[in-house]
Amino acid sequence: MNSILTALQEGRLFELPDNDKTSALQFLAHVIAAFPQVPADVDIFEHVMKREESFNTALGKGWACPHARVSFEEDLMCAIGWSPEGIAYNAPDGKPVMLVIMYVISDTQRNHYLREISVLARALETYPSFEKLWDVKNLDDIRNYLLDLVDTAKESSGPDTRTRMIRLQAKAAPEALTFHDLSNLIVEPVTLIAIPKMKPVALTQNQSLLEWLDSTSDLIARLEAEGVYQNGGWRVIRRGVVAYQGGRMAYDCIAVRLNPLK
């Protein structure tokens, strides 16, 4: 379960902004698309949804492991999403999904992925405190839950030094962390108001994002046609749209970008 440890170490654990399955998968897919390793022309969300249409990726006990199989070469990697309310995922045990681990699998990493999923499935069967997942209150609780689960999975091979180090890093002062990772990922809610024959109005608390949105020209057309817009550092993802009288439209979106390390 090294991919999960790496995701925790590199800040790839997020609270999902929506408890709708498609929206949750889209959110994680666009987070992964922001990884520097992922080519700009790879549509992670499309890959994930094609796999999801073939079979349901819920494991039961509040877990799901959707994945995208891609042609570019990269180590097995994942992003982790937590839903406080739970997602209706049609899981085999009928329980809502609280944890979504989204994997990206290159052709050379398929066996690695199958081994990791096998270890995870066994861990869920033997982990004595799996029901704690329903009681967690925040991301720190989820992080500790996952580290405990990994410890359980690795007991047969002896103490895991890396797991202990990640626990120590979590207790360190923020300024002591020096990972060049996704802990500097910015996720901002934004509402876009489209009025016929007028420039769209962006509503956001982020000044940099506001200036970037005001400088775009084909934003609404791209969001309407493709559901996503990217031209520079920000990626804007449409989550929903409401139509009003007079042809006015309100687009509920999230904007994602990596904040350059200084």
Automatic annotation (TrEMBL):
It comes from the Bacteria. InterPro entries: PTrfase/Anion_transptr, PTS_EIIA_type-2_dom, PTS_SugarTrans_NitroReg. Residues 1-149 form the PTS EIIA type-2 domain. GO terms for molecular function: protein kinase activator activity. This is PTS system, IIA component. It comes from Candidatus Moduliflexus flocculans. The lineage of its organism: Bacteria, Candidatus Moduliflexota, Candidatus Moduliflexia, Candidatus Moduliflexales, Candidatus Moduliflexaceae.
